[in-house]
Design a protein that fits this description.
Blueprint lengths: L2 H8 L21 E6 L2 E5 L13 E5 L4 E4 L5 H14 L4 E5 L11 H7 L4 E5 H7 L10 H15 L7 H12 L1 H6 L11 E3 L2 E4 L6 E5 L9 E5 L4 E9 L10 H13 L4 E6 L7 H22 L4 H7 L3 H8 L3 H24 L11
Parallel strand pairs: 4-5, 5-6, 6-7, 11-12
Antiparallel strand pairs: 1-2, 2-3, 3-4, 8-9, 9-10, 10-11
Helix pairs in contact: 1-12, 2-3, 5-6, 8-9, 9-12, 11-12
Bound molecules: zinc ion.
The site of zinc ion has 8 residues, from strand 12.
Amino acid sequence: MAPISRLLLIGLGCLGLTAAATAATVDPYQRQTLKITDHAWLLYNNVRSTQPPFEGNVVVFEQRAGLVVVDAGGSIPSGKNLVAAIRGLSDKPVRFLIYTHYHGDHNLGAGAFVQAWPGVTIISSAATYANMTGAPMAYINTYAHDYQGMVDYGASALKDPNLAPDKRREWQHVVDIGAPMVAGYVGLKAWPANLVFHESIELPDDMAPLHVNFLGKANTDGDIVIWAPMQRVLATGDIVVNPIPYASASYPSSWLQVLDKLKEYEFAWLVPGHGTIQTDRRYLERVQAAIADIRNQVAPLAARGMSLDEVRKAVQLTKLQDEFAGNDAWDRAQMRGFFLDALVSNAYKEAKGEPIVQGHDGG
Ligand SMILES: [Zn+2]
């Protein structure tokens, strides 16, 4: 996910209000450890994936000579927490840190890794490197300010006596973690990869060999997956996010093909970019069906010459909101803003033959 987009869709618009932030004592960037199988662990942030701080999942693989880590957390304290958790798993150094994509919730903690293991090699796709060294990453300069705006908006929303209970619960969470969450985004720095590839890269080993593959454009133009054939663990980054998928500046037709390729892996555990581990292909198929549904609705409308605004009014989104978000008002808003609205826009661009641009489109 790219949290900056999340802010927009939640309805950020009240910058400048005074926060009624309470002095939260919780660390919003805490990590829990789950052993997936031999030589493979998941380090996850123990809030629902639809709740801030929207920290990406982190996977640790143990190879003979050292550790390989997939993604680095999305804030400075998150990176420090991850380093401490990893040191609790093994005395081996982290030799390789791999970014699934450029969105900061997956890499802004990398400074702690560089500090802890100065010899670490950071790996990404070429497109992710270009994004992290270019305009799409510029949003991190206003990240703390923008998140403070989100906390202020939440404090304001809570004053509305008619606020839906689901939204009250979630805005209260945002306000409760507000101060330490925003503090974690002050002084952010991007850590672009120093080993970049276009198609694939191998990290051979006798106990946990890894295959890192770019399968095509999906959630971004540079998403990669990490496959551990001996562990049968597949880390997908935000190509797969559950329970609410994330679209941003995605590429709907190519994304469908990438999901087909994911289904070909003989995984026992699929670790999404956010949310819970999948052990079968059902969720992949649900996401595919949702993308196909939107494309099938949008393409004929675009072909008839409708504007994007007209298409937005004509498409039927309620069924997909019902399916993915149920009756939860917060999740329904996220399904609409983080996935459906972005997907309609991107499907429209595809239908019109217009480019989808990272850092501009989606969310
Ligand atoms: Zn993400």
